[in-house]
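Changelog-linked ticket: FE2/S2 (inorganic) cluster example.
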Amino acid sequence: MDDERDPGTPPAPPAGGVTPGVDRGDRLHAFRDDAITVTWSRRRCIHVAACVFARPDVFQPGRRPWVDVAQGDPGDVADTVLRCPTGALHYVRTDGGVAEPAPAANTIVVSRNGPVFVAADVEVTDESGAVRLVDTRVALCRCGRTANAPLCDGAHHAAGFRDAAALGDTSAVDDGDVAARPGTRLRIEPVAGGPLRVTGPFTLLGAGTGQAVAGARVKLCRCGRSANKPFCDGSHRAAEAAGG
Ligand code: FES
């Protein structure tokens, strides 16, 4: 069983592709028993603590190691892993149990004072358009302070980022021709110096606001400056011109 004080292990990438659930260049810690292996990415964990609240006997910060899968039924441990909204936690059943399912629909949740949480069949690219991550759960920065763009690294806390998660003018969402699009995968591309370009069928929700809008294309602000959050309103250009 890994000790999280170690730097973790970089998983071997498959030839010519990306490993589902593993961000490019990331290192993972593995915690296993005979029935299940849980992996954890320190880099992607922003301490939402959904796992800790659900199963504090299995996920216990401060204990060494902090994940002890033997404390829970493997099905319960797996269900708890799926609550992790960032994708920092994943599991592999080694007892023939159910593998991680893909979400039935693609949802994007704007959180209050924090990132955008995506639950979807999703791919995230780098600014050149190359896929760096394929996953089912991702947290995306919207304060502009992350050191692991476009993923959230928790920097919004220190930055004092404040936003109520209300959806601004939803005419920014293009409902496109969802039915004509091949497949259902969501693609998220960070535009250099600009927003996150999202394409693919999705429902966008403002957490705690009751607001929801369906679409197929949208540009989400990732600089933190838009006056029409969570959508990009072009404010990044003025900030860039001003050297900010
Ligand atoms: S990325 Fe923030 S306004 Fe465009």
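Closing comment: Example verified and attached. Residues 194-195, 221-223, 225-226, 232-236 surround FE2/S2 (inorganic) cluster (CB under 6 Å). The beta strands are 29-32, 36-40, 89-93, 107-110, 116-125, 131-140, 186-190, 196-206, 211-220.
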